């Protein structure tokens, strides 16, 4: 994001005066300027700015803060991951009574015995004693971090309050559960599964931001949802009074008013149609009898499906984008202020003069800064060997110093990783006589200039695909003989030889460091060498390798074609956008997973073990007739099946509702459970994911932003690399980068408005 320096640093002019710029008179009482600047940079990287708090700190507090930061990254995330893993591997509550001991491993089907066969995930559940120990260790560590965090946060914010609340509740539940287990009880209900989800949401920043956005969009969402419900009620009432008189069978032998016999039935049916889950099944009885009923269903679909469901998506999209935009405006505003303050502390007048001389950060000051930030693991480490590379990237004008404008990029530059790679091949370095041979230059010409070798590989790959399809057809048609297998094995052997020869030609005239930089090349080399070794092993007369194995390896090798398509102009931009978006979607994927985990945990506790073969409550149900009993809530892993089915299908299934009604013992249990999941999981969470993908893709769908080389690296001084080497830099797209691209104009405008206010 290009901002003028007045936009970037003037925002911090008013606040920076709150910091002591002079060196402390008494060592040990206050922080040095470098320590203050490092603290400001560390907080700027996460969008925080607290000059008053930093001014009050001492070197001792700084050391404690560094230790605290290094204790929570990545340990906090590891603890949360382990607790979520417990949800997948712990013995379900309905099975605890069959345990044989605290640390006895038991087969899942033995410990979870139902009156009939019950489908389980197949996981061998961890002994209850082991999961308790893991929970105790993780909860204790998270509690310790929460106590430390209260010492360094300027105020106990909402996120920290939630952390303390979830950890405290979890600790109480864990103590109660442990005592119950020790005294031989088998509690089926725990609060812990819900606390695990809560800790996931408040421990991962990206997930927390997305979850807050989901919560804050609820009021606007409910306004449109209310209109949607009114439309369903109106059409349900209209259907009930319309079809009430059609109490006879149609030509298919089905009652014309099936599903609309009463007002409540009509409401249920129209809701199912509005979600598209029962479309067109529920319309067929009436439509078969009278074609003009199609007009009613058409109008209903236009209002509910095409209008209100898309309006709900639009509301979610707008509210989510507005919240995230506001959040990142705040983050980058705080970053600008923090970096302005840090620059003030580090900068010295040009040439050592005073007065109106421009202030800059020298190489020595920058080295002192990164030496201090290196103490915090959350900030990428700058080694002494790469210090010059980082400095040269920041020094855009090659002046040997860093100006205020250049210093603003420090948070982005520190996230690069640099590598020194050779630019000469092994032959050029150690066997110059080979490098001087005409054949060497011939191969180099067709690898680097005409790219004939790469084109030949692609051509052979296409032909290889055709032969694989032919072989697959023979295999599926059961017409392949033993002789055919030998012929196909020989063909695959020669393909392996060709691929290996082409790879050897590339490596001969390409420095290995350069070749290894590309993920595609790494995949190609690994698979090609593996395929070549397997082919040689197959051809040996004293070995017996199935041609099917060789065939499978060739199929893996054909994945190289995917990369070929991605590199075509028609697909390259889209492929690059997808590669950038996927790792940055952690937050929105996290909220979908978290919401599903909440509903899943509740269902496992309430309905676990109730769905099994021979359950008299499920006899003569469409649920069993459709063989949906594999989609159940008998353990945590299995519980995601019904929820995922609803996300994909778009709404609650009659079969699921019917099954839960039967096993729960009261009518409406399934409707309440699955409808609530439809509203929260599908209409909110999945639409939030859609909103993120739309915004992120549009922001990345730009040739200049995605395909061009990073402008920050233009000033990288290659003289540091030495003769025969060059420096390459890489940086993965993060969630912050994606949002920065999404709201670049708004962030720039917001910071410029702050400058006007400061002036």
Pick out its properties.
transmembrane, 66% helix, calcium, globular, Helix Hairpins, 759 residues, EF-hand domain-containing protein, 37 helices, disordered C terminus, repeat, ion transport, mainly alpha, two-stranded antiparallel sheet
What does this entry look like structurally?
- Homodimer.
- InterPro entries: EF-hand-dom_pair (IPR011992), EF_Hand_1_Ca_BS (IPR018247), EF_hand_dom (IPR002048), Ion_trans_dom (IPR005821), TPC1_plant (IPR044581), Volt_channel_dom_sf (IPR027359).
- The chain crosses the membrane at residues 125-148, 160-185, 220-243, 292-317, 456-474, 486-509, 521-539, 573-594, 671-694.
- The protein is mainly alpha-helical.
- The protein has 37 helices and 4 strands.
- The chain is globular.
- The relative contact order is 0.11.
